[in-house]
Automatic annotation (TrEMBL):
It comes from the Bacteria. Keywords: Signal. Residues 1-24 form the signal peptide. This is Uncharacterized protein.
Length: 188
Protein backbone atom coordinates (compact mmCIF):
# COMPACT_ATOMS: atom_id res chain seq x y z
CA UNK A 1 0.00 0.00 0.00
CA UNK A 2 2.85 2.40 0.83
CA UNK A 3 4.42 1.71 -2.58
CA UNK A 4 1.13 2.64 -4.27
CA UNK A 5 0.81 5.88 -2.28
CA UNK A 6 4.46 6.76 -2.98
CA UNK A 7 3.97 6.01 -6.69
CA UNK A 8 0.74 8.07 -6.78
CA UNK A 9 2.41 11.06 -5.04
CA UNK A 10 5.39 10.87 -7.41
CA UNK A 11 3.07 10.73 -10.42
CA UNK A 12 1.02 13.66 -9.08
CA UNK A 13 4.18 15.71 -8.50
CA UNK A 14 5.43 15.01 -12.02
CA UNK A 15 2.07 16.02 -13.52
CA UNK A 16 1.94 19.25 -11.52
CA UNK A 17 5.48 20.16 -12.57
CA UNK A 18 4.78 19.30 -16.19
CA UNK A 19 1.71 21.52 -16.30
CA UNK A 20 3.23 24.43 -14.38
CA UNK A 21 6.51 24.41 -16.33
CA UNK A 22 5.04 23.87 -19.78
CA UNK A 23 6.11 26.31 -22.47
CA UNK A 24 3.62 28.80 -23.86
CA UNK A 25 1.70 27.59 -26.86
CA UNK A 26 3.18 29.51 -29.83
CA UNK A 27 -0.25 29.52 -31.49
CA UNK A 28 -1.93 31.22 -28.53
CA UNK A 29 -2.99 34.68 -29.83
CA UNK A 30 -2.37 36.17 -26.38
CA UNK A 31 1.06 34.59 -25.96
CA UNK A 32 3.39 36.73 -23.90
CA UNK A 33 6.76 35.83 -25.39
CA UNK A 34 8.80 38.11 -23.13
CA UNK A 35 9.30 40.82 -25.75
CA UNK A 36 5.75 42.00 -26.27
CA UNK A 37 2.45 40.24 -26.63
CA UNK A 38 1.14 38.57 -29.74
CA UNK A 39 -2.48 39.68 -29.79
CA UNK A 40 -5.22 41.22 -31.89
CA UNK A 41 -4.76 44.99 -32.19
CA UNK A 42 -7.59 47.25 -33.39
CA UNK A 43 -7.03 50.44 -35.39
CA UNK A 44 -10.02 52.22 -36.87
CA UNK A 45 -12.30 49.62 -38.48
CA UNK A 46 -9.40 47.20 -38.96
CA UNK A 47 -7.68 44.61 -36.79
CA UNK A 48 -4.59 42.45 -37.06
CA UNK A 49 -2.75 39.86 -34.97
CA UNK A 50 0.66 41.38 -34.27
CA UNK A 51 3.58 41.22 -31.85
CA UNK A 52 3.25 44.42 -29.82
CA UNK A 53 7.05 44.70 -29.56
CA UNK A 54 7.40 44.98 -33.35
CA UNK A 55 7.76 48.77 -33.60
CA UNK A 56 8.33 48.67 -37.36
CA UNK A 57 5.02 46.87 -37.93
CA UNK A 58 3.11 49.09 -35.48
CA UNK A 59 4.52 52.21 -37.18
CA UNK A 60 3.61 50.85 -40.63
CA UNK A 61 0.02 50.24 -39.50
CA UNK A 62 -0.26 53.63 -37.76
CA UNK A 63 1.17 55.67 -40.63
CA UNK A 64 -1.08 53.70 -43.00
CA UNK A 65 -4.08 54.78 -40.91
CA UNK A 66 -3.29 58.48 -40.34
CA UNK A 67 -1.05 59.52 -43.26
CA UNK A 68 -2.35 62.76 -44.84
CA UNK A 69 -5.74 62.38 -43.14
CA UNK A 70 -7.78 65.33 -41.93
CA UNK A 71 -9.43 65.31 -38.52
CA UNK A 72 -13.00 66.62 -38.54
CA UNK A 73 -15.06 68.01 -35.68
CA UNK A 74 -18.00 65.69 -36.41
CA UNK A 75 -18.99 62.72 -38.56
CA UNK A 76 -20.59 64.98 -41.18
CA UNK A 77 -16.96 65.81 -42.14
CA UNK A 78 -17.87 69.45 -42.77
CA UNK A 79 -15.32 71.23 -40.56
CA UNK A 80 -11.65 70.31 -40.31
CA UNK A 81 -9.78 70.65 -37.05
CA UNK A 82 -6.38 69.24 -38.00
CA UNK A 83 -4.37 67.04 -40.32
CA UNK A 84 -1.77 64.31 -40.00
CA UNK A 85 1.17 64.68 -42.36
CA UNK A 86 2.92 61.87 -44.24
CA UNK A 87 5.13 61.12 -41.22
CA UNK A 88 2.25 60.93 -38.73
CA UNK A 89 2.79 64.36 -37.16
CA UNK A 90 -0.34 66.36 -36.35
CA UNK A 91 -0.95 69.95 -37.52
CA UNK A 92 -3.77 72.28 -36.43
CA UNK A 93 -5.93 73.81 -39.17
CA UNK A 94 -5.16 77.40 -40.15
CA UNK A 95 -7.65 80.26 -39.94
CA UNK A 96 -9.04 79.42 -43.41
CA UNK A 97 -10.43 76.16 -41.90
CA UNK A 98 -9.13 74.20 -44.91
CA UNK A 99 -5.35 73.96 -44.77
CA UNK A 100 -3.04 72.75 -42.03
CA UNK A 101 -0.64 75.13 -40.34
CA UNK A 102 3.00 74.43 -41.23
CA UNK A 103 4.01 74.05 -37.57
CA UNK A 104 3.75 70.61 -36.01
CA UNK A 105 1.31 70.74 -33.10
CA UNK A 106 2.01 67.22 -31.83
CA UNK A 107 5.05 65.26 -33.00
CA UNK A 108 4.74 61.54 -33.63
CA UNK A 109 7.10 59.55 -31.39
CA UNK A 110 6.18 55.84 -31.53
CA UNK A 111 3.35 53.34 -31.09
CA UNK A 112 2.07 50.99 -28.44
CA UNK A 113 -0.85 48.61 -28.13
CA UNK A 114 -3.04 50.24 -25.47
CA UNK A 115 -5.72 48.24 -23.69
CA UNK A 116 -9.03 50.12 -23.55
CA UNK A 117 -12.53 48.70 -23.03
CA UNK A 118 -11.21 45.14 -23.15
CA UNK A 119 -9.41 45.51 -26.49
CA UNK A 120 -5.87 46.40 -27.49
CA UNK A 121 -5.88 49.50 -29.70
CA UNK A 122 -2.99 50.63 -31.85
CA UNK A 123 -2.10 53.99 -30.36
CA UNK A 124 0.36 56.72 -31.25
CA UNK A 125 2.45 58.46 -28.63
CA UNK A 126 2.88 62.17 -29.41
CA UNK A 127 4.83 65.08 -27.96
CA UNK A 128 2.65 68.20 -27.68
CA UNK A 129 4.59 71.28 -28.81
CA UNK A 130 1.95 73.58 -27.30
CA UNK A 131 1.92 72.07 -23.84
CA UNK A 132 1.83 75.50 -22.13
CA UNK A 133 3.26 74.40 -18.79
CA UNK A 134 1.01 71.42 -18.10
CA UNK A 135 2.63 68.53 -16.18
CA UNK A 136 2.19 66.10 -19.10
CA UNK A 137 3.36 66.93 -22.60
CA UNK A 138 2.80 63.46 -24.02
CA UNK A 139 -0.45 62.44 -25.68
CA UNK A 140 -1.73 58.99 -26.54
CA UNK A 141 -4.02 58.88 -29.59
CA UNK A 142 -6.13 55.97 -30.87
CA UNK A 143 -9.06 55.59 -33.27
CA UNK A 144 -12.08 53.40 -32.59
CA UNK A 145 -14.15 51.45 -35.11
CA UNK A 146 -16.24 54.56 -35.92
CA UNK A 147 -13.17 56.69 -36.68
CA UNK A 148 -13.42 58.65 -33.42
CA UNK A 149 -10.15 60.08 -32.15
CA UNK A 150 -9.64 59.06 -28.53
CA UNK A 151 -6.97 60.84 -26.50
CA UNK A 152 -5.17 60.47 -23.19
CA UNK A 153 -2.45 62.45 -21.42
CA UNK A 154 0.42 61.15 -19.31
CA UNK A 155 4.12 60.39 -19.33
CA UNK A 156 5.38 63.63 -17.84
CA UNK A 157 7.08 66.55 -19.53
CA UNK A 158 10.63 65.31 -20.06
CA UNK A 159 11.24 64.92 -23.81
CA UNK A 160 14.00 62.38 -23.07
CA UNK A 161 11.75 60.10 -21.00
CA UNK A 162 9.52 58.54 -23.68
CA UNK A 163 6.40 56.78 -22.37
CA UNK A 164 5.90 53.07 -22.94
CA UNK A 165 3.42 50.24 -22.27
CA UNK A 166 3.71 50.80 -18.50
CA UNK A 167 2.87 54.52 -18.58
CA UNK A 168 -0.30 55.53 -16.76
CA UNK A 169 -2.58 57.42 -19.18
CA UNK A 170 -5.60 59.54 -18.23
CA UNK A 171 -8.44 60.00 -20.70
CA UNK A 172 -9.33 63.58 -21.58
CA UNK A 173 -12.80 64.66 -20.43
CA UNK A 174 -15.27 67.01 -22.07
CA UNK A 175 -17.01 69.89 -20.28
CA UNK A 176 -19.60 67.56 -18.75
CA UNK A 177 -16.99 65.15 -17.37
CA UNK A 178 -17.55 62.44 -20.00
CA UNK A 179 -14.73 60.89 -22.02
CA UNK A 180 -13.86 63.37 -24.77
CA UNK A 181 -13.72 62.63 -28.48
CA UNK A 182 -11.26 64.94 -30.21
CA UNK A 183 -12.55 64.46 -33.72
CA UNK A 184 -13.04 61.93 -36.50
CA UNK A 185 -11.04 60.62 -39.42
CA UNK A 186 -12.92 60.04 -42.64
CA UNK A 187 -11.10 56.91 -43.85
CA UNK A 188 -10.74 54.39 -41.08
Amino acid sequence: MQKQIKFFLTLLTVLILAVSCAKNNPNDPNNNNGSGIITTVYYGSKSIVVNTADQDKLKELWIGLVKNQFIYYATDYAYKSGKFDSEGNYHDISSDYQNPKPEIRTKYIKNIAYQYNGKFYLAGIYWDNENQGMPNAYRLIAFDDKGAELAWFGGGSNPNNIPNENTVWTRYKDGSGKDAIWGYIEKF
